[in-house]
Design brief:
The chain has one helix and eleven strands. It is mainly beta and 124 residues long.
């Protein structure tokens, strides 16, 4: 199964912004719900945001609501995560994932196709 490929991570200072990108196999973003997660060593993968296959519904975890926003461009087979006002506790590996259509899930096990992740480090 073709993988998703994340990019856009890096080292930034507190208060900075980053926009992560995820390129998916052809038409994946049209047929699947897409989500963003993050993980730090020793902890479970944490849900951040999801967008429905239609693009009409988005969901954000409360901890990042108001700072992170998910979007997608079906013509580019891509999904994005705009992250603003980054904090040191946002340091993690960020993953995008695809799930079968239906109500977008916050549960990592519901997603069946994952990228390898992109590292985001927030430090002064």
């Amino acid at each position: 199964q073709a993988q998703l490929v994340e990019s856009g991570g890096g080292l930034v200072q507190p208060g900075d912004s980053l926009k992560l990108s995820c390129v998916a196999p052809h038409k994946t973003t049209m047929w699947y719900n897409m989500g963003w997660f993050r993980q730090v060593p020793g902890k479970e993968r944490e849900f951040l945001a999801a967008i429905s296959r239609s693009g009409s519904s988005t969901y954000n975890e409360d901890s990042v609501k108001g700072r992170f926003a998910i979007s997608k461009n079906d013509r580019k087979n891509s999904v994005y995560l705009q992250m603003n006002n980054l904090k040191p506790e946002d340091t993690a590996v960020y993953y995008c994932a695809a799930a079968q259509p239906g109500t977008p899930s916050r549960v990592a096990a519901s997603y069946e196709n994952w990228g390898r992740g992109t590292q985001v480090t927030v430090s002064s």
